Model the fold of this input.
Amino acid sequence: MNKCLGCIYSVSLFIGIFSFTYLYFYVSTKLNLRHRPSFKTPGKNPSLLSVFNAGHHIKEIDIPSYEMDLKLMKAVEKLIRRDRIDLKPVNLEKFRYMVRPNGPCEFHNASSNFSRVLVLVKSAPDHYRLRQWLRLLMNETVGQMAGNLRMFFLLGYSKEMNIDINAESKKYGDIIQKNFIDTYRNLTYKTQMAFEWATTDCASADFVLFQDDDFFANIKNVFEFLSVQLKPEELFTGFLVEKGSSVVRDRTSKWFVSDIAFSNEVFPAYFPGGSYIASHKIVERLSYAFPYVKFIPVDDVYVGLVASKLGLAMKASHLFYFSDCDNWHSCLTCKAFT
Done:
């Protein structure tokens, strides 16, 4: 009888321990699944990506550190309020201005019927004819919006051209230049200069139109487009390459990015150079963030990278043409030369 009771006790004890263990792991698993963050797979548009990434394999985006992004967002908010921050810059200021516009960036006789638009044109030192052409085109097309628009050209240093650049600056007063060598791999420095100057020297602008010197801007359409924006301070739009395009690791390519400079194998969304428009508020936020996000030598991707860290929405628009200017009347900007 005692043996039988002992046997029953042992079996009951085993069943109890087994049931408790099973219940514990079952509940733990459910709770872990319930609280595990879910990430949506980045969307892909093969037709759009193929334009700039023909033959490149599309991979998944690595989810960036939310904590680091949050720190950067908070730091930018403090910098805008002129408060001190704890973050240390990773990009030290290396270059100084060599040429700046004559006088402050002001919108003389600006009409209250239109926004104030700053146009910043990335140009090469030897592209004088393109700059002159854009000056003439702007004067001929700006019309009654003349007081609401300012245009400046962004250049790096050229030993061969700098005497001519100084003479051009004295004549037109629309050159912005720092002493980095003007090369393709230094375009990120040129872009950083553009955002910095717009923030510090042209704070009265409502919007900034960035473009290359081989692009035309249909100024009338630009002003009409800006006038219908429901949330103008959030405007950040251009021809958008969606996130997920492959990083070029081929050292012979001008788009080469080392894994030391950028460890992810795919890029975030970005506007591919050429032309895009942002509100001055967006430009200011990006400018303050640039020193705290490591530079990469592909400037348009770098802007997209910093924008993603700040949680800024980059909006796609079909009004930026990268093929030609045949439909000039219906675009905001178009590529005039190929």
Remarks:
- The chain has two domains: 1-36, 46-335.
- Residues 2-35 form the longest helix (34 residues).
